Every structure is written in structure tokens, then in C-alpha cells.
Amino acid sequence: AGIINFCANNYLGLSSHPEVIRAAVEALEKFGAGLSSVRFICGTQSIHKDLEEKIARFHQREDAILYASCFDANAGIFEALLTPEDAVLSDELNHASIIDGIRLCKANKYRYKHMDMQDLEAKLKEAQKHRLRLVATDGAFSMDGDIAPLREICQLAQKYDALVFIDECHATGFLGPNGRGTDELLGVMDKVTIINSTLGKALGGAAGGYTTGPKPLIDLLRQRSRPYLFSNSLPPAVVGCASKALDLLMESNAIAQSMAAKTQRFRSKMTAAGFTISGKDHPICPVMLGDARLASVMAEDMLNRGIYVIGFSYPVVPKGKARIRVQISAVHSDEDIDRCVEAFTEVGRKHGALP
Ligand code: PLP
């Protein structure tokens, strides 16, 4: 009782939004509990097609394809798209599902240093010998809350004739003036070719993932992508949640704006209190502590004060870079944010993280 959650990916608070819940109940009643089938046999209902169309419209892309998760979308794309004659260039800190997806494909693999454009350029030069080049990056990185330099990446991609793929799990719905994501925030919506994202975070938080991009690519994925071909269709209630979440976001950017204001409040108050917060302007606010034990005992003590946060240490983050990852949501009130900052200040002083 009275505990406030500061560690969910529920950035917009839509997982508990009454209209999202009602949409799920209505879809359940109208379309049933599940399809007992993959999409291409008898697992496609009108709501699946509608949601794919809505996702493409939201991202201003030609088409979209649904998966059971973004992990599946990442597992399915590289193998379907790239041959042994091609190359994929991946940021070293990309999400595990991108790494696994790349492992499954037979393309030539290049790993560039985290957000290091000199290294990416060197690798792109090296990769000129291949038929096709794909640069793959998280739009926003979940451990540090930092945002990929997409403008520079797209410029390099243009120079060296490469395609750009972004994973927008920690951006869709709230980054950019209309919440379209990192490509909107950085003004490169027309330069990023492929977007993978999740329905399991800001867009209602239930489950599901997708790829959106050029129609021929989506057609190819429907023919060749193994997690799409060989895994069950998304349940109607889940589709209903995501579809309503997108409706709400396309009607107004007020929810995303309110989350951005709260993020700003938290980041500036914590910095003024003496903490180091990694990243910039992102609702993932890693409170950098360094020591693994300090992160763990502080998180425990925060819970005693009614604030639910989790400490992250090696091997999830590099040695010596332990932290407590705070995630801001539109459902937090200003008072909730202030309560969280006060608790951090008390606990930080008690354990020597603050003077
Ligand atoms: N990509 C990134 C960057 C993520 O953070 C996650 C989830 O943690 C995923 C992909 C996987 O998303 P899903 O939970 O929809 O499988």
C-alpha cells in the first residue's frame, strides 16, 4: 500500500488507462480469447489488419507486420533480409534481441563502438565490398537513457549507401513532438528505412511487437520471417489495448508532453540534490552510483520509503557502473516525483552517496 512504481516501462501510463482496458474487454468479448493459429493459417482477424495499418500510419511508413513480441521482430528481420553477401553494422550496446537476431543471419557482421561515428564510418568503409549494408541501432538505449545520433548515422548511411534500422522500444509513443520516436525527435523520419518496436511498453504494456517500413520489405517478412510464420497470432485483447493506445496518441500529444515535463522535473531536482543522472531528456533516468552493493542497499531502502526502484549491476551494466534505474511515467504526479527525490536524498545521505 502506498508504494509508487518507478521501474516500469509504462512511460505514458496507458497500461492502466480506463479506455485501453475497456478496449481490451470489448475485443475479448467480440473476437474471443485467442486464435489457436499462426497468422497465415486462420490467425488473422480484422483487428490485426487494422492495427498493422494504424502502426504504419502512426510511423508514417508504408506497411507494418505484427509479432508476438519485439524480441521476435528482432529475431526475424535480419535473417529474412540479409544474405551472406550483405553486411550488418551494429552498435556494441544494442539490445540482446538485436544481437541474437544478427547471430541468426549469415551476413558479414561489424560491431561499432557505442555511438562512435568515427568507428561507424571506418566500418562502413570496410563494408563497401558487400552487396548491401544495414546499420542497426537502438533509438534510445535502455541502460543509459542515451539517444542514438541518428542524424549523423543517416548522413553516413547516405554517404556509404547503407540502410538504417532502429529499435524504438524505448522511444515509440513519447520521443519527438508527436511521440513518433527518435526519428521524429531528430528530424530523420524520411531517412530511417526500418523500425522495430514493442507494444509492451508505452503502447499499453500488454505484449507484442512489430516491424514497420517499405511495403516490399513487409511483404518479404510475411513470406520469410520465422517468428511470424511459426508462432501464434496476437490475442484479440492485446490487439485491442495497443490499438486504443495508438488512437489516444494520434488524437493528442498531451500525455507525452506531460511525461516529458515530469522527466524534466525529476532530472533537474535530482541533479540539484547532487546526484549524477545519465542520459539526457529521456524518462529512463539512471542514478549513477558506481558500487553494486550501494545500488542494491539503496534500492531496498527506497522501497522502505514507498518508492519501488531496482539497482542494476554487473553483468547487466559494466563493472563499476552500478546504478538505480528510475523510469518516469505520465501517471506520476508532481508530488510523486518530489517524494521520490526526497527519498533518494535521505537514502543517499544515509549510505554516503551524497555528502
Ligand atoms: N528491444 C529493446 C531495446 C528492449 O528494451 C526490449 C525489451 O526489453 C525488446 C527489444 C524486446 O521487447 P519485447 O518485450 O516486446 O519482446
TrEMBL record:
Classification via Gene3D superfamilies: Aspartate Aminotransferase, domain 1 (3.90.1150.10), Type I PLP-dependent aspartate aminotransferase-like (Major domain) (3.40.640.10)
PROSITE patterns: AA_TRANSFER_CLASS_2 (PS00599)
Biological process annotations from GO: L-threonine catabolic process
Record's keyword annotation contains S-adenosyl-L-methionine: no
UniProt enzyme class: transferase
Catalytic activity: glycine + acetyl-CoA = (2S)-2-amino-3-oxobutanoate + CoA
Top-level taxon of origin: Eukaryota
Pfam family, any one: Aminotran_1_2
GO cellular component: cytosol; mitochondrial matrix
Keywords attached to this entry: Acyltransferase, Pyridoxal phosphate, Transferase, Transit peptide
EC numbers for this chain: 2.3.1.29
Molecular function (Gene Ontology), one example: pyridoxal phosphate binding
Cofactor(s) essential for the protein: pyridoxal 5'-phosphate
Domain Aminotransferase class I/classII large: 3-344
Cross-referenced InterPro entries: 2am3keto_CoA_ligase, Aminotrans_II_pyridoxalP_BS, Aminotransferase_I/II_large, AON_synthase_class-II, PyrdxlP-dep_Trfase, PyrdxlP-dep_Trfase_major, PyrdxlP-dep_Trfase_small
Entry's family note: Belongs to the class-II pyridoxal-phosphate-dependent aminotransferase family.
Name of this chain's protein: 2-amino-3-ketobutyrate coenzyme A ligase, mitochondrial
Native source organism of the sequence: Aleadryas rufinucha (rufous-naped whistler)
